[in-house]
């Protein structure tokens, strides 16, 4: 499977490379674009400030530029938190998308958007400070109404970016369960 994996607001950190290596070890081809030009951050707040300075349009433009040369291959779009939001927007807009793997984040859905049974899997903490229960319920219903085949996996007690071993949110058990389920999802595509 050809996968494009977008990083979180922390930037392209070692955990993203480790995730890409895990996916490659399972036989997938993985591209990991650096949307922040080598800049990484120690806190969510620093990353969000940088994202605001960069601007949402510029960030989306960079994500599109990274994916566009490979979109004819039938990409699986994947991302962590902010990267999940970008992956979701690109997958919905790409009629050749093979799947969408969201880790820790979703995005709003434009009115009138539709997909033809796009396989979607979301992994998120329960509770998650950035993905409230009300938001996730509405997101799930909107994704289904637009034609996506959606699975949501919640991890009680885990922090927001619980798959990153260098962050305080890390939860080893939840991270391993996430990767086991995600690899099964990718194998099914």
Task: State the total count of DSSP E strands.
Answer: 6
Query: What is the count of DSSP helices, taking H or I runs of 4+ residues?
Result: 6
Question: What structural class do the secondary elements suggest?
Answer: alpha/beta
Can you summarize the main beta sheet? 6 strands, parallel
CATH superfamily: Alpha/Beta hydrolase fold, catalytic domain
What does this 3D model show about the protein?
Helices cover 41% and strands 18% of the residues. It has 6 helices and 6 strands. Strands 2-1-3-4-5-6 form a 6-stranded parallel beta sheet, sandwiched between helices. The model has no long low-confidence stretch (mean pLDDT 96). By secondary structure, the chain is an alpha/beta fold. The longest helix is centred in the C-terminal third of the chain and has 17 residues, at 172-188. The chain has one domain: Rossmann fold (3-Layer(aba) Sandwich), CATH 3.40.50. The chain has helices spanning 14-25, 44-54, 56-67, 82-93, 133-145, 172-188, and strands at residues 2-6, 29-31, 76-80, 99-103, 119-126, 149-156. Helix 4 (82-93) links the parallel strand 3 (76-80) and strand 4.
């Amino acid at each position: 499977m050809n996968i494009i994996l977008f990083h979180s607001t922390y930037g392209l950190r070692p955990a993203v490379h480790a995730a890409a290596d895990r996916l490659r070890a399972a036989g997938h081809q993985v591209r990991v674009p650096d949307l922040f030009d080598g800049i990484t951050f120690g806190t969510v707040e620093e990353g969000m400030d940088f994202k605001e300075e960069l601007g949402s349009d510029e960030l989306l433009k960079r994500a599109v530029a990274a994916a566009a040369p490979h979109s004819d291959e039938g990409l699986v779009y994947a991302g962590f938190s902010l990267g999940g939001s970008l992956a979701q927007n690109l997958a919905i807009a790409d009629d050749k998308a093979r799947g969408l793997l969201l880790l820790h984040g979703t995005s709003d859905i434009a009115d009138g958007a539709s997909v033809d049974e796009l396989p979607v899997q979301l992994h998120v903490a329960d509770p998650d400070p950035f993905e409230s229960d009300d938001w996730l319920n509405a997101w799930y219903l909107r994704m289904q109404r637009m034609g996506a085949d959606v699975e949501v996996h919640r991890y009680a007690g885990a922090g927001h970016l619980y798959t990153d071993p260098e962050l305080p949110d890390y939860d080893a058990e939840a991270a391993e369960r996430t990767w086991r389920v995600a690899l099964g999802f990718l194998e099914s595509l």
